[in-house]
């Protein structure tokens, strides 16, 4: 027991001496620098970073960075374009509620809408279906079903056009982290291979190349997170916009069956 206590005391004293030396060493070094006229702090440029990764990387590393750049550029472009389209459709919905239903007839209401408006397209398709129901084949279908089919076809075309590009956002959001992880694994493999060949495994030789490789994962996450957030937001706005189109289509269907008179609506 006495031997164990002596050993323990010896270890405690040794650790205390080491800690004291570590604490005093920076102070001594600072005092020496001050006495020599050297500045207290020095700035060291970081030789490891994205620029160094691009300069020292092979075609796989550069290709991975290029893919991530294209993914990011494409997701931001699609996000901005879809945001403009959705805002325009919501603005057209307000115009349709204000102007279309105040017209005396469906034809007059359609003329008040913009020519390239989704609601103008629905109105034109509904008018066309209501006025062209005299064919031999179409006479076997009642007017309500025929108009409903035409409006549903126009509604599906508008929905497909509004959802175009969202699949790219979803793909980027789900695959960009794995692309960045692939670049990290590839970079770590080459870094460890170079370290093994040189025979130097010190911390400065390992931390730099491995840190450069981890930049790939960070870039992949930076590309994926905005894409996922944008995708979820765009899907939500699409539901709101298409709900307005669906309500307009249903009301237009009823009005066309009633003979095209809208009455006074707000």
What can you see in these coordinates?
This protein is an all-alpha fold and 266 residues long. It folds into 2 domains: 1-43, no CATH class; 50-257, no CATH class. It contains 8 helices and no strands. The protein has helices at residues 2-36, 50-56, 59-99, 106-112, 118-131, 143-163, 166-198, 203-257. The chain is rod-shaped, with a radius of gyration of 35 Å. Residues 1-35, 37-44 and 261-266 have low confidence and may be disordered.
How do the helices and strands follow one another from N- to C-terminus? Answer: HHHHHHHH
Rg result: 35 Å
Q: Major sheet, described briefly?
A: none
Please report which band the strand proportion falls in: under 5%, 5-15%, 15-25%, 25-35%, 35-45% or over 45%.
under 5%
How far apart are the first and last residues' alpha carbons, in Å?
96 Å
The count of strands amounts to 0
Any low-confidence stretches, pLDDT <50, length ≥5?
1-35, 37-44, 261-266
Mean pLDDT: 74
Shape: rod-shaped
Number of domains: 2
User: What structural category do the secondary elements indicate?
Assistant: mainly alpha
Count of helical segments?
8
What percent of the residues sit in helical stretches (DSSP H or I)? Answer: over 70%
Per-chain topology:
Blueprint: H1 2-36, H2 50-56, H3 59-99, H4 106-112, H5 118-131, H6 143-163, H7 166-198, H8 203-257
Helix pairs in contact: 3-7, 3-8, 4-5, 5-6, 5-8, 6-8, 7-8
Quick overview of this protein structure:
The chain is mainly α and 266 residues long. Helices cover 80% and strands 0% of the residues. It has helices at residues 2-36, 50-56, 59-99, 106-112, 118-131, 143-163, 166-198, 203-257.
């Amino acid at each position: 027991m006495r031997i164990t206590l002596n050993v323990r005391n010896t270890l405690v004293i040794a650790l205390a001496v080491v800690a004291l030396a570590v604490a005093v060493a920076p102070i001594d070094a600072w005092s020496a620098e001050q006495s020599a006229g050297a500045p207290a702090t020095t700035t060291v440029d970081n030789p490891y970073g994205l620029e160094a990764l691009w300069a020292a990387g092979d075609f796989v590393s550069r290709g991975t960075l290029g893919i991530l750049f294209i993914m990011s550029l494409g997701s931001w472009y699609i996000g901005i374009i879809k945001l403009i389209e959705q805002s325009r459709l919501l603005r057209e919905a307000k115009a349709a509620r204000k102007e279309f239903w105040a017209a005396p007839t469906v034809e007059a209401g359609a003329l008040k809408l913009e020519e390239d408006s989704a609601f103008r397209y629905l109105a034109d398709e509904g008018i066309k279906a209501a006025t062209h129901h005299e064919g031999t084949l179409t006479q076997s279908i009642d007017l309500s079903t025929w108009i409903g089919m035409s409006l549903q076809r126009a509604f599906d075309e508008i929905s497909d056009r509004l959802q175009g590009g969202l699949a790219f956002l979803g793909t980027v959001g789900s695959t960009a982290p794995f692309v960045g992880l692939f670049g990290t694994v590839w970079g770590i493999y080459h870094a460890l291979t170079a370290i093994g060949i040189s025979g130097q495994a010190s911390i400065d030789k390992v931390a730099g190349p491995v840190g450069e490789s981890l930049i790939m994962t960070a870039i992949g996450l930076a590309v994926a997170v905005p894409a996922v957030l944008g995708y979820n937001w765009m899907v939500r706005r699409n539901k709101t916009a298409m709900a307005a189109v669906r309500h307009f289509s249903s009301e237009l269907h009823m009005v066309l069956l009633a003979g095209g008179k809208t009455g006074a609506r707000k």
